[in-house]
Amino acid sequence: MADVVLKGVQKNFGALAVVHAIDLSIVHGEFVVLVGPSGCGKSTTLRMIAGLEDISGGTVQIGDRVVNDLPPRDRNISMVFQNYALYPHMTVRENLGFSLHIAKRPKDEIDKAVAAAAEILSLTPLLDRRPGQLSGGQRQRVAMGRAIVRHPDVFLFDEPLSNLDAKLRTQMRVEIKRLHQKVGTTIIYVTHDQVEAMTLADRIVIMRDGHIVQIGTPLDVFERPMNAFVATFIGSPPMNLLPATVHDGQLRLADETTMPVPPGISVRNGRHVQFGVRADNIMPDGHAMPPTAHMAHVDMPVTLTEPLGTETLLFGTLAGTEVQAKMLNPRPVKPGEVLRFGIALDKCHLFDAETGASLRA
Asked: What is the pTM of this model?
């Protein structure tokens, strides 16, 4: 059993603090994704867990050991990098077994471990090829297989899909999910791609400027974002945010459009807020909407459309702010055409205009 516990972990480069005393507990077998924009500290955090970066403060514990002063080879972790890090002159078989060979394991043990990893990742027909003869997805599977053969306590993935095209990224997400289901080992995965985070994670850790902003299941962070940053970072397309002021239980937008305050939110008169609504919850009248007893209706000119097959993404302007909505039964829409939209208010959010904090209880 290998829980991973970070207590007050921080990283400074001289006077510059890049990770600020974060706390995080990951239970054995969990798939946790660290996600956030470039420079938020997620890769630095992963490298501190791996032992590739010194820790400026706090402790990292893997299983029952504090590993701050242990070199990477003694932490029983395996890391999969963005650039595969395969030896080009070695075959797949040799790459998979290299770490065991260095550890002077018996040949029959190495052969058995390589065969098992190759079977899990469908690499058996490729064992005698070299990396230059493989596709990007195949090379990434070899990199994962090389990690598997060591039977680590923890797998660490550092943006492993960044170099792949969109189709391969989708395929490899499935491969990584299957790998986790088969081996059941703790996985800590770093990405800037929120779609990867949403589809892979048991829990998502959202980071910004070296701080942990929110931790939760994909559904938690999508439906109950703690602030406007999380609301716009998680979800595709991002949540629409419109400036508004509260007056007598109504939201007054910049162009004097009014609508009720979303149910379940208590906010004082005169407060400046940001009104948040996802594209899934603002649709032209007559289209399927989430079951709700609380609706508002607005007229909005459409400025642009993006047909996506079974649905169309609509861009419009509401109270001087660009808004994205969805049309589930696509039809041609001309730029400038004004449509009546329904807004599911009980799916909407309010955030403080200054702090960005959610005003939902």
From this structure: 0.89
**272-310: buried (b, 16+ CB within 10 Å) or exposed (e) per residue?**
ebbbbbbbbbbbbeeeebeeeeeebebebebeebeeeee
The b-or-e profile of 82-99 (16+ CB within 10 A means b, else e) is bebebeeeebbbbbbbbb
The 8 Å CB, 24+ separation contacts for 109-118 are: 110/149, 113/149, 113/151, 114/145, 114/149, 116/148, 116/149, 117/145, 117/146, 117/148, 117/149, 118/92, 118/93, 118/145
Q: The tokens of 38 are what?
A: 């470039």
Please state, as a whole number, how many other Cβ atoms lie within 10 Å of the Cβ of residue 258.
14
Scanning the chain, the segments in alpha helix (DSSP H) are 42-50, 92-102, 107-120, 136-148, 166-183, 194-200, 218-223, 228-233
**Tokens representing residue 132 in the block:** 């230059």
* SS3 of residue 150 by DSSP: coil
Q: Which two tokens stand for residue 91?
A: 């075959």
The per-residue pLDDT for range 276-321, each reduced to its tens digit, is: 999 999 999 877 666 666 889 999 999 999 998 888 999 999 999 9
Cα–Cα separations (whole angstroms), residue 211 to 9, 10, 35, 201: 11, 10, 11, 19
Cα within 13 Å of Cα(202), Cβ side:
14
Task: Decide the pairing of beta strands 203-208 and 31-35.
Answer: parallel
Question: Residue 303: which of 275, 337, 353, 266 has the closest Cα?
Answer: 337
